[in-house]
Specification:
The complex is a heterodimer. Chain A is mainly beta. In chain A, 12% of the residues lie in helices and 36% in strands. Chain A folds into 2 domains: 100 residues, Immunoglobulin-like (Sandwich); 253 residues, Sandwich (Jelly Rolls), CATH 2.60.120. In chain A, β10 and β11 form a beta hairpin. About 5% of the residues of chain A have low confidence. Chain B has a single domain, classed as Beta Barrel (Porin), CATH 2.40.160.20. Chain B contains 1 helix and 12 strands. The longest helix of chain B has 16 residues. Chain B starts with a helix and ends with a strand. Classes of the chains: A mainly beta, B mainly beta. At the A-B interface, α1, α3 and α4 of A face β3, β5, β6, β7 and β8 of B.
């Protein structure tokens, strides 16, 4: 009898354990691996017979394409033949491209369109590829008046700016960290972003940089503020969260010798400066940044160099800096004139071959890179003028 | 007066046959997804945690081997799961802000809960010492935490063709989330068990609990549906 009871109990326990195992295993079966949904061009390469005669710099033949970019631009020598070129792309896994990867096209009539479709067939992205022969008829003086801005085309969440090119078309030389701000404050309206237009600037529109609170996500990540910034270069949102100082890629190739740069600003520091942890720093007044850096854009080994948030003023690649230094608070438009102080002679051959880059940087909080500053600090900038030394 | 005496008499008879015991159990399982979608590509680590149950429970035998069973339980539950995901729809909400999109990488989810629950079960005696139980439970969470982070991967913001944002492994570089306030306070579900009275005072029990209500409120879609699901094994000491 006892034995029978014992057996029953064993049976019962086994049933219980079995059903538990069934419950757990039922949850632990992995379905078939889903197809990839992404449809990006990740890199683009132009292979040509004589690259030295075609490109200013060998590295110009290869482009890493940011996820937010849909216009791929190759700048080539003025006399380069662009009528039959077959750019080669690397795509996200499984994606396909039309027209075919490597197919030959004539780029002399303007950009060529490509469409990438994801492996699962559900998503597509359209790209344009331009190959632009460029000669160095750079004007002695470049004007940046911030009159050309628009809501970003993909989602219209924030403003982006264009510079006016000598031929009257619009360039994309100015970058901001607005896309990064969007990650933390998706609900913000365009005028609540760190970088916004100011309708009535010194002359026409100006650009306004405001140090903003990054809200609950910012607090969670100990990134409590976002300084308003604007710079010549690109913003790589891919690493805005994981490596924010490298997301700001300062500088674009520049083929003239900058001498000084001028402009007009207003600056009103925010009420109190807060540190990384959001604690007020008593007695400190926020400071803004207005400076320009001219640097060699390749290292000794021939690798392409851009400057980042952590070395834009300290890199050994730097050739000259024009720094306004202390940006005196003012509510009235105030003119500045900052001269480039050269640390070494310019190599004219390198200059002609786009071997130098120029970064102009504005920020509403100097220490914004370490998330220190005063929320509400506001730097407005207008009528920026870059004067280059006339070539003899 | 007569009615009252009669009622007391019945009550006394009922109380005579009532068994009461104190139970201590160890729970395995915790909070599990109802199914694992194909977005989950692998489990790096799963730790159900050290979860226990303390309860006072009473059984009232009625007739023909049948009876009813109830009690008051205090239970802890939780989990710590680290999984690899692909094309995982994720929405991170904090305050009024949200960030959503498709994530590829690793997701760590941690949860702890403390619950008071009230089971109501029918019992059936297989023999004098062996009893099966089955019924429903109601539970109230007295403590609820659900948090975690998406890490070592990337988010495509909004859709798979949105901006690509990489997430690292350190706080501030990864995508932290915290869904405490989206958890249900009340839970209910199915509860089946068995008791083996191997000694006049001591018994063993097993229990299987399956929540009908999800861990989260019905308007919450940030992570896949999860529900309380666990097995308990433990000792019972009869005090009456």
């Amino acid at each position: 009898m006892d034995n029978k009871k014992y057996n029953r109990c064993i049976t019962l326990c086994t049933v219980m354990v079995m059903s538990m195992i069934m419950m757990v295993t039922n949850t632990a079966c992995f379905g078939e691996e889903p197809a990839y949904s992404e449809a990006d061009i990740e890199t683009a390469t132009l292979h040509v017979g004589d690259p030295e005669a075609f490109f200013y710099q060998m590295t110009d033949s290869f482009k890493t394409v940011m996820s937010t970019d849909t216009a791929i631009v190759f700048v080539v020598r003025g006399n380069a033949d662009v009528t039959a070129l077959g750019p080669v792309f690397t795509l996200t896994t499984g994606a396909t491209i039309v027209p075919a990867n490597g197919s030959i096209h004539d780029f002399s009539g303007g950009p060529v369109g490509y469409t990438v479709t994801s492996q699962d067939g559900k998503w597509t992205r359209r790209y344009t590829v331009s190959v632009i022969p460029t000669t160095h008829t750079v004007a002695d003086t470049l004007y940046y008046n911030f009159e050309h801005y628009e809501l970003e085309t993909a989602n219209q969440h924030y403003y982006t700016w264009h510079n006016l090119l000598p031929d009257g078309s619009l360039g994309n030389d100015w970058a901001t960290a607005n896309e990064g701000f969007r990650m933390s404050m998706g609900s913000a309206r365009p005028m609540d972003y760190p970088t916004t237009p100011l309708l009535q600037g010194y002359e026409g529109s100006a650009v306004c940089l405001t140090t903003r609170d990054t809200g609950p996500f910012g607090r969670m990540a100990n990134k409590r503020l976002a300084a308003g910034n604007m710079f010549l270069g690109t913003f790589d949102v891919r690493i805005a969260m994981s490596d924010h100082l490298h997301a700001t890629r300062f500088g674009l190739p520049f083929a003239s010798r900058p001498d000084h740069f001028t402009g007009y600003y207003t600056f009103e520091p925010g009420e109190f400066v807060q540190d990384f942890y959001g604690n007020p720093i008593v007695g400190r007044v926020d400071s803004a940044d207005i400076y320009a850096v001219f640097y060699r854009n390749h290292d000794a080994a021939g690798n392409e160099i851009v400057l980042y948030g952590d070395n834009v003023l300290s890199s050994e690649q730097i050739v000259a800096v024009a720094d306004l230094g202390y940006v005196e608070p003012t509510t009235q438009w105030k003119a500045w004139n900052a001269k480039f102080v050269y640390r070494e002679e310019i190599d004219e051959n390198l200059l002609a071959n786009r071997g130098y880059s120029l970064a102009i940087v504005f920020s509403s909080s100097s220490a914004g890179g370490s998330f220190t500053g005063a929320i509400g600090s506001r730097l407005c900038v207008d009528k920026v003028c870059l004067i280059c030394t006339k070539e003899e | 007066m007569l009615a009252a005496i009669t009622a007391m008499g019945i009550q006394a008879t009922v109380l005579d046959s009532l068994h009461v015991d104190i139970r201590l159990g160890y729970s395995l399982g915790g909070t599990l997804p109802t199914h694992i979608g194909h977005e989950i590509r692998g489990i790096n680590n799963f730790d159900p945690g050290l979860n226990f149950t303390v309860s006072a429970e009473a059984t009232l035998p009625l007739k023909n081997r049948w009876g009813i069973h109830t009690g008051l339980r205090y239970e802890t539950g939780g989990m710590d799961v680290d999984s690899r995901v692909k094309n995982y729809d994720i929405e991170v909400v904090r305050g009024d802000e949200s960030l959503s999109g498709m994530f590829v990488g690793n997701v760590r989810i941690k949860s702890t809960q403390r619950r008071i629950s009230l089971p109501i079960q029918a019992t059936y005696d297989l023999s004098e010492s062996l009893r099966l139980r089955g019924g429903l439970f109601m539970g109230w969470l007295t403590h609820r935490r659900f948090w975690g982070w998406a890490y070592n991967g990337y988010l495509r913001e909004g859709t798979p063709v949105g901006a690509k944002v990489e997430m690292g492994s350190e706080p501030g570089e990864r995508g932290d989330f915290d869904f405490d306030s989206s958890m249900r306070i009340m839970q209910w579900g199915l509860d089946v068990g068995a008791d083996w009275q191997f000694h006049s005072r001591w018994g063993l029990f097993v229990e299987l609990t399956y929540g009908f209500s999800g861990l989260f409120k019905s308007d919450f879609h940030s992570v896949q549906p999860l529900r309380p699901m666990y097995g308990t094994i433990g000792l019972a000491y009869r005090i009456k």
